[in-house]
Amino acid sequence: MNTQTHVLLAAAILAKPGKPARNTAVIVGALVPDLAIYTLFIWSKIAGIPERRVWSELYYNPPWSDAVTVGNSAPLYILILLIGLLASKWYRPAILLAVFAIAALLHLAADLPVHVDDAHAHLWPLSDWRFRSPVSYWNPNHNGDIFTIVEAGIGIVLSIILWRRFHALWVRALLVLAIVAYLGPPLYFGLFAQL
Ligand SMILES: [Zn+2]
């Protein structure tokens, strides 16, 4: 799924008002599996590499493919989760590590059913097995056009849940932006298609 949906999903399940440290761990955990992709994107822009080469070649080869695999490893986050839970018995704030790991695992669970050719080796380093779903979150050749609408629906529902829970103006402003990001492109292109 798209990064913003991962953040909204993790926040809707784990975030609580008035708990900034916990909520930061939730957001970082939801973002971290996609970190390698953003690093590659920014680096390629600085290095002036054409976008087509980035997503057809660099993304599928080391070191970028390795970085993506590490960031999407369920065993790694389960290990961090266990360390966080154990350590929190002696040092309470270590529970944040566990929260971070759960948010990352939610990201992996949400990605599993919607990746085809770009499926991740979620069991690395135990196995290189990849689940190739019939549904892609983006590729129209694998129902991506339908899932884009489904994802927008999920994202808007999650935004409404968070809107009701959080009253801070800046949080609500971000949620409005998220809804606009889901509705904007289809409305924009839909309108232009009518003209
Ligand atoms: Zn992802």
Would you write up a description of this structure?
This is Cobalamin biosynthesis protein CobQ. Keywords: Membrane, Transmembrane, Transmembrane helix. The chain crosses the membrane at residues 25-47, 67-87, 94-110, 146-163, 170-189. The protein has 195 residues and is an all-alpha fold. It has one domain. Helices cover 67% and strands 0% of the residues. It has helices spanning 3-14, 20-31, 35-47, 51-56, 64-71, 74-87, 95-111, 144-165, 169-194. Helix 1 packs parallel to helix 8 (144-165), helix 3 runs antiparallel to helix 5 and helix 8 runs antiparallel to helix 9 (169-194). The longest helix has 26 residues, at 169-194. It is globular and about 60 Å long. It starts with a helix and ends with a helix. The model has no long low-confidence stretch (mean pLDDT 93). It binds zinc ion. Residues 33-34, 107, 111 line the site of zinc ion. Zinc ion binds at residues 33-34, 107, 111.
N-C termini distance? 31 Å
Structural class: mainly alpha
Basic shape: globular
Biggest pleated-sheet summary: none
Strand percentage: under 5%
Keywords, separated by commas or semicolons:
globular; 195 residues; 67% helix; Cobalamin biosynthesis protein CobQ; binds zinc ion; mainly alpha; transmembrane helix
A few lines on this structure:
The protein is an all-alpha fold.
